[in-house]
Amino acid sequence: MNDGVKGYLSEAAEMQALPFPEFTHLRLQAPCPEYLLAMKCMAARIPGYGTGGDREDVLFLLRHLGIQDADKVMEIVQHYYGTQPIHVKTKYFIEEIIQELS
To answer: What are the domain boundaries of the chain?
Structure first.
């Protein structure tokens, strides 16, 4: 995990096992799609130098999860980050992407 992600970890994290071999000193896991969606929305990065941003990932996750409602996305974000302030940029980011899905 890189340092850029560490700021978006949640105490309510939900991980899932990956279909890879298990080792005595290494366990491979990935965030469940809902948790990944919440992390991407909290970061709400725009494309720039060295990054493609989070927009395409969020669009993919929304389609994968069958979500087309901004309130549902905010519920998911609140579930994982309810103890942290949710920035206004995250709310606008979600609303903008949901409009794109419509």
So the answer is: 32-101
